[in-house]
Amino acid sequence: MTTPRSGKRFIAWAAVAGVVAGAVFLAVAELAALVFARTASPILAVGAFVIDIVPRPLKEFAITTFGEYDKIALLVGLGLAVLIASAIAGILQYVRPHLGAIAIGLAGVLSGAAIVTRAEATVLAYLPPILGTIGGVVILVILGRRLRAWREASTAAPVPENPAHSRHLDRRRFLMLTTIAGASAIVVGIAGRTVSAVTSSAEAIRKAIKLPAPRSTVSIPSGAELDVKGLSPLITPNADFYRVDTALTVPTVDPETWTLVIDGMVDQRIELTFQDLLDMGLDEYAITLTCVSNEVGGGLVGNAVWQGVPLRDVLAMAGPQSGADMVLSRSVDGYTASTPLSAVTDDGIDAILAVAMNGEPLPPEHGFPVRMVVPGLYGYVSATKWVTELKVTTFAEDEAYWTPRGYSAEAPIKFASRLDTPKSGTPVKAGKVPVAGVAWAQTVGIERVEVSIDDGEWKPAKLSKPINEDTWVQWVMEWDATPGTHYVAVRAVNKNGDLQIEERAPIAPDGSSGWQRSLITVS
Ligand SMILES: Nc1nc2c(c(=O)[nH]1)N[C@H]1C(S)=C(S)[C@@H](COP(=O)(O)O)O[C@H]1N2
Ligand SMILES: [Mo]
Q1: Per-residue pLDDT averaged across 408-435, rounded?
Q2: How far away, in angstroms, is 452 Cα from ligand 1 center?
Q3: Radius of gyration (Cα) for the chain, nearest Å?
Q4: What CATH class is the domain 416-522?
């Protein structure tokens, strides 16, 4: 007899069958991706697609809520969505045979579209979603049949000569396949992803690379680094350097096959290999990088010593034509940035193609093997990682990744100062307390940093000796802190004599502004 309770039980098993079919889909696709096309993982492609389409407020919410873990949060969310959608497909298949299979087929088409429209996709990229779909549909159809057989056996009147046999057999056949398929999918899926991550050749290639010694090195003047506990180091170690990009998985680029194409409005299209770049001779440049998403007081800013070649020399080989006013740089993953042509050709600006960061080849997540670094412009309009093309063009003609997504096509860095210590929420002891932080005004330089306690008089802080105008400086002021709560505010003046913008602005469309003012507890 089908009681409402046993009816519900079959629905639940149908959902389980759907989840197993979904897992088989993903596992088969991961395995196929491993064999045929590394970047053609359906789940990662869909994730990347989601990154590209989420509206700006949601993206800002993700960055402020999850910070550097925004990508993990996205993957967890996607996983849950897949789980629910697969369960529904399983129930559909049980209620109306074929419907669930059609749903999986649809998922295959959608994920296939997400895959083949990615920048790195090859023809082989069709295989993972196709094979995954076949695997998922086959399992779903078989499980659906077995589940119905089990239900029919359990509701049919017992056959006199074989009272309990069929019901148990059908039940066992369903549960057996569910378990085996589910377990193998989990093992194969996880193994596939792990093998893919571990054997990703990039790290091995990067380790093996030996860069020629730079012709010139950055000399750090004495007094460039202040000794204050809690103050950001002058040079940000690679491991602590902020990372911001739209890449769900770090692109793997082999410098052996990497080329940089310079085309568009040029006298001559040219193509450079990694060796060509190295042969130009490397020089060292200290440049502070800043993200447009950096809030007042935020950590999306870092200072590194880069090795590379001037972009102006590379562009000169191609010969930009008159009328051009923009360089559209393109990454291997399709990301683009719009940089004013003048910012990368002016003699006074050290805009570079960088191959090394703080004495080692660029870390994969910071753009290995080659990225752009342009002092004075926010990263999203200048610092293209995994760069493969420089198209000389115009702002009227071309648009970069973030432009239709609510950010300005041009975005010079708004110079700023930041308080590193003491921190709100970390009480300090009364007495002499060093108040310290960093300030940056790339290409111009910081003239003065001023501190105000409890909205009192602005007093100049002591500055570290700058490495150059493209890097941040450190500042410190001794504060005679009395017990209670106090406001500590900081602002900077650049070498043009401009005062840091006081008015608060959000990060969109062209960077935050405002003086940092922190509430500090003294005990
Ligand atoms: N290929 C690619 N390059 C990119 C981005 C990106 O999303 N993709 N983001 C840019 C942004 S917004 C910033 S702030 C800098 C950050 O560089 P980092 O991650 O090395 O700190 O990289 C820039 N280059
Ligand atoms: Mo950024």
Answers
A1: 97
A2: 34
A3: 29
A4: mainly beta
